[in-house]
Structures are given as C-alpha cells and as structure tokens.
Write the structure tokens for this entry.
Amino acid sequence: MALVLAGVVLPDPLGTETVLRRGVAVARAGAGWMLTTTAFALTLPGRIEALLTRIEMLMTRIDQVIDSADAVVASVQRTTGAADEVVASASVASHTALELIELFDPIAKTSEPMARKFVDNLSEEEVDAAIAMVDQLPGLLDHMEALLPILATLDTVSPEIHELLGVTKDVRRAVIGIPGFKFFRNRGEDKLNEELRDEEN
C-alpha cells in the first residue's frame, strides 16, 4: 500500500500494515512500561517502609553490639587492673624469694655435705624410731610440765637427801651388824623366791 503525502505518492517499502503493527507494538511496550512503572511506584512506599524498618532493626543491633563492646572493654579494663595487681604481688613475692635465697644459699651449700652424710647413713629402723619418738613428744611434754615444779624444789631438797642417804648407810651398817642377820636375810630371799614360783604356776 503506497503512502500519499501532499499529492505525491511515496513508495512504501515496509507497507502500511507493518508500520501500524510496529506502532501498536511500540504503544503496547510503552503501555507495559507505564504499567510496570506505575506498579513499582505504587509498591515503592511499602518497600521504603520495609527498608526503613530493616534500617531501624540494624541500628538496634548496632546499639546492642556497641553496648556489648562497652561491656567487653570495661571487663578488659577490670581484668587489666587485676592483672596489674597480680604482677605487683608477684614482683614483691619474687623480691622476697630472692632475698631468702641469698640468705639461705650459703647455709644450704655449707650444710649439704653433712645432710647428705646424715641421709646416707640413716636406716629405715632409725626413721621409724624417730617417728615413734616424735609421736611420744606430746605425752613427754605433759610429763615435763608436771615434773618442772618438782625439779625447781631440788635445790632446797638436796641437803636433806644427802642427810637421808647418810642415815640410810648408818642404818644398813647397824642392821648388818645384828647377829643372825645373814641367816634371816637368806631365809627371807628363799621365801620370796617360793612365792614368785607359786605365782608363776
């Protein structure tokens, strides 16, 4: 179909039908684009609102992370303070230990040969005896505490004891001088021996 323009017939290589189809296609594409754009424009407020909600949630999480980070920093500061105290205490303890080592090192070096000789010559029986003796120390201490007042009076009793021993010697001499004392003494010993044998049987 030829195209007539101002009384001039122009050639229509594509044909009017083709042009109309193309125009309709362009119009449809334009209408489709307008519908798509309109739909997008209509959904845009909802999307923006959803985006704002997500941004708000993200900000809340960021605030929580910042609070957690602040708590961690505070905990690290407390831990650092405690560590500083531990280091200071360890430094004091180390200084004291060095002083003690300097004090006791010469003593240890001097006494080491004697201690080694003592340990090398110590038998198991002697160790057991030493342990048993240590076990008896509390009772021995009680007896010593009871004995100390008596020992304190020995200075005043000593002359009387010497006098008593002298009298005892005189009495013994007098008894031995009695006629027949030896006979009675032997008889008494025999009687005692008989009594002991009877008790054993």
